[in-house]
Write a structure and sequence with these properties.
Length: 199
Amino acid sequence: MKRAALTLILLLIGILAVGAYLTLFTVHQTQQALVLEFGKPKRLITKPGLNYKIPFIQNAVFFDKRLLDLDSAPQEVIAADQKRLVVDAFARWRIANPLLFYQAVSNEYNARTQLSNYLEAALRRVLGAASFEAVVRDDRNELMRKITGQMNEKFQGSRHYGGRCPHQAGGSAGGEQPRHFPPDADRASARGRGNSRRG
């Protein structure tokens, strides 16, 4: 009799443990979460802590709160004076609105793909319209600001993708050493190396 009661108690504890596992989830300080019900957004969670969902009906999708890095592959750009630049650029961005982000691109992989395309296109437009000397020395910081501005127009969180590209840029080209910026939550940088061979 005692053995049957003990077995029943252990069975109930196991059922409760499984129920808690399927129902409860934790949102960490570096995360924000979206609760989906049959794939449709139901609830947004931005504060860390213990939360719940309905088993088998709802699931939680997590998004990073931190500043995210994006590195683009080195690419060759022809400057306005027909000199070649090999540009190695990167951007920093964050997910500002998880709901819009999920509705627009679903996940970080898709966002990185689109953001990489925007970065490469902005580099070609801005640097391709400038001279080699302007990229290397004269107008480098202004060119970086233009690149970042064009990316923000394409990837602005509150209206389009739920992501936010930083609104400052800086970098180096033409063999100079990259500048070192202080850590800033909303900062993007692009750096490149150029040579003076005519294409």
